[in-house]
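Request: Could I get any protein with tokenized structure?
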Amino acid sequence: MGVLSGKVALVTGGGKGMGRAIARLFAAEGAKVAVAGRTEADVRDVAGAIGADALPIRLDVTSRDDWAAAIDAVQQAWGKLAILVNGAGLTEAGSTADLSDESWRRQMAINLDGVFYGCQAALPLMKASGEPGSIVNISSSFAQRPVPGFVGYCASKAAMTTLTKVLALELAAEGLPIRANSVHPGGTETDMLEQALADTGLPREEAYQHFVGIHPMGRMGKPEEVAQACLWLASDASSFTTGTEVNVDGGSFIRA
């Protein structure tokens, strides 16, 4: 029996990268998983590979209507919700001097607003479910140690990290058994990393080695390594942990 047996989870960004790894691991550990993402074909593929305990949901996290429909679909399917993982994210390069309004708003809309909307939409069902719950928000090592040239991404992830802490305090003040924490990956082998490398304008291998260089362990992470941290936060094993930042970053945060 898995550590999430009997739990219901919703994972955004579930069609690829970290979200896909999280959805697969949660299902392997006994959870019923709503695999949510913007690209319907991707979430259907992931849910189909998991099987009967997965529900594909097309979800644009910047849309309150989509969020309402997603939560309703989970309620109709399983009647409850214990775990929310806000994994959808976007990174676009740009300095404070030259980042466009459109890029700033896009990153804020997905990385910050989408998490805010998701928490607001999911909490009523999580509270009504009457069981211990966990919200896991995927932030970034760049929220803790920002780097030049990614102002929108760094700012949006830092704001989302603080949102998570405020939520943790509010839930605790209500006496609810629902926790909120953030996970901070370093460079991780995903499509989003490839986009970040391309956005530097450097040759791919040069950009890759530069990113590797900010990780004392000398390599990039794997989506499955991030998923393991999310599993711990989602499970009852972390029942006394809320409002914290869990780093999965190869030592990036503590580098010299």
Observations:
- Helices lie at 17-28, 40-50, 64-78, 101-129, 151-173, 191-199, 204-212, 223-234.
- The mean pLDDT is 96.
- The first strand starts at residue 8 and ends at 12.
- The chain has one domain: 8-188+222-251.
